[in-house]
């Protein structure tokens, strides 16, 4: 599955596939073995992958690869839905550190505003841990 998002300070009116991304986020730690996740990645672009491996161990052909064990963080925090680890909020924290596009503080505020109580706290903790544990390969 592919999904696309655009980030900007002004309203974005384009709603189509991103063919030359600045960033690629890979949630499935194995998909890059069967799909070229770097296809179209801009020169100097960043690939952020959910894996326990170090960036240089991924085998990805990109100049800037970052890794974070988002699955491990979800399991550590018991952040599960129907028994499956939820990695999205961890990836947001890692994205913040890898790209410096979004401040971690803003992510934490939105997470806590979106999910009240312990669910919000647990998701915020996942983002914080991923921010701290991100490994950059550059």
Description:
By secondary structure, the chain is an alpha/beta fold. The protein contains 4 helices and 6 strands, in the order βββαββαααβ. It is globular, with a radius of gyration of 15 Å.
Short description, anyone?
The protein is an alpha/beta fold. Helix content is 34%, strand content 14%. A 4-stranded mixed beta sheet has the order 1-2-3-6, covered by helices on one side. A two-stranded antiparallel sheet has the order 4-5.
Q: What is the CATH first-level class name?
A: Alpha Beta
What's the count of strands?
A: 6
Alpha-carbon Rg, integer: 15 Å
Number of domains: 1
SSE string, helices as H and strands as E: EEEHEEHHHE
What is the CATH-assigned architecture?
A: 3-Layer(aba) Sandwich
Apparent shape: globular
Uncertain stretches: none
Briefly note the CATH topology name.
Answer: Pyruvate-ferredoxin Oxidoreductase, domain 3
Question: Into which percent range does the helicity of residues fall?
Answer: 25-40%
Instruction: Report the β-strand fraction as a percent range.
Output: 5-15%
